[in-house]
Amino acid sequence: MSIPKLQIQTTQARLGIVSRSAVQAIRQYKAEQTIEQPEADVSIQQRSGKLTIDQTKAWNNIGLKSIFTRTEETAAKAQQIWMDGISRTAQEGDELMRIENKGDPISAHAAQNAQFDFSMIPGGRPAFDLVDIQYEPAPASISIESNPPKIQAVKRAPELSYQPGKVEVNLEQHADIQIDWKV
């Protein structure tokens, strides 16, 4: 004996999905930028320095002396001659006191004093190391005024392009139920 059977067969629905991704493009151009740096304003001011040249020693070296220097030298030389004369007179007096000691001091003194001493020393040549040079620089006044840079920038907006994505859904297969009764 056969038992009746109920047979159910189902087919599921099948969906088809087709998707297209969104496309976005961004293009950014470089900004235009200019930078200009003006030169700083610099000012330097300085008074003239003080230059002192003393040639006195060089002139004295070649015999071109001032009246004051000549007077001092003549006075010093005269004092030395005077001191030498006092010394010579004292020595001659001592020799005359001892006239009894066999000798002829009077004729010796006359012969010695008959000589005339004239000595003149010519001046030397001027020497650069006898010239005193002094220089005192004056202080410098320096002022600096900086100028700020000039910056100019032109921005560029980005170019945007966008294509939206798309999703298409379709039913590729319908759902189906088949019921069969088998005896």
Briefly, what is this?
The chain has 183 residues and is α+β, with helices and mostly antiparallel strands. It contains 3 helices and 12 strands.
Question: What does this 3D model show about the protein?
Answer:
- Helices cover 25% and strands 39% of the residues.
- The chain is α+β, with helices and mostly antiparallel strands.
- The radius of gyration is 65 Å and the shape is rod-shaped.
- 0% of the residues are buried.
Number of helices: 3
Poorly predicted regions are none
Distance between the termini: 10 Å
Average pLDDT value? 87
Instruction: Indicate the radius of gyration in whole angstroms.
Output: 65 Å
Protein name: YviE
InterPro entries: DUF6470 (IPR045527)
Main traits of this protein?
183 residues, alpha+beta, 3 helices
Lay out the secondary structure.
Elements: E1 5-11, E2 14-20, E3 23-27, E4 32-36, E5 41-46, E6 50-54, H1 56-61, H2 67-97, H3 105-113, E7 132-136, E8 140-145, E9 150-154, E10 159-163, E11 166-173, E12 176-182
Antiparallel strand pairs: 1-12, 2-11, 3-10, 4-9, 5-8, 6-7
